[in-house]
Amino acid sequence: GAVVSQHPSWVICKSGTSVKIECRSLDFQATTMFWYRQFPKQSLMLMATSNEGSKATYEQGVEKDKFLINHASLTLSTLTVTSAHPEDSSFYICSARDGAGDGYEQYFGPGTRLTVT
Amino acid sequence: AQSVTQLDSHVSVSEGTPVLLRCNYSSSYSPSLFWYVQHPNKGLQLLLKYTSAATLVKGINGFEAEFKKSETSFHLTKPSAHMSDAAEYFCVVISYYDYKLSFGAGTTVTVRA
């Protein structure tokens, strides 16, 4: 089946630094990737939609200058948390839509646990 | 706009007994619906999906769900719970327009020995 990887699986950084998270579709081309964040004991919240070769579309309330998304190829999207603060600590999950399939199924990465100290 | 509502935030069952997780949807057209499972600190795994074919959908690990238009429901069931079923379950609807997923609040399942 389709596999999506994320790297790193967990990261600890100091307040004020930037962190980059990678999302890769390993065996299919992902025309669209989505980034979510999940706080403990809560559901997933969509942050942004990333289409290959174009600017990401951010959900209301998500700071685009803080959460930089780049989708440079059909298999890679990156999320950079800039000037991270402790309130950015969360579980970040990406998903990828297989453009060759029926389009309705998304494949999720294993998530990245970000802790900002 | 589409949305889903999971009616139970927490379900506790004994091992070997049936599991029922309830989900109602709201949509102006026939939706595509999914159930995902998430184990602690893990990503999401697709259990099953409904995309306007058979209303009774069978998924992995013995789970199944029935789409009932008259009740706007898509409840998830399993006849016999296993300890490994302890996890968080999400009912999800997808937008045909932009493929965005809308998640329910989630149901935490605990399984008692």
Sequence of secondary-structure elements of chain B? EEEEEEEEEEEE
Q: What does the main sheet of chain B amount to?
A: 6 strands, mixed
The DSSP helix count of chain A reads 0
Helix content of chain B: under 10%
Oligomer: heterodimer
Percent of residues in beta strands of chain B:
over 45%
What is the number of beta strands of chain B? 12
Output the number of helix runs of chain B: 0
Helical residues, percent of chain A: under 10%
Cα distance spanning the termini of chain A: 37 Å
Straight-line distance between termini of chain B: 41 Å
- Supply the helix-strand structural class of chain B: mainly beta
Number of beta strands of chain A: 11
CA gyration radius of chain A, whole angstroms: 13 Å
Indicate the overall shape of chain A.
Answer: globular
Mean model confidence by pLDDT of chain B: 93
General shape of chain B: globular
Biggest interface, chains and residue tallies: A-B, 24 and 21 residues
What is the alpha-carbon Rg of chain B in Å? Answer: 13 Å
Share of residues in strands of chain A: over 45%
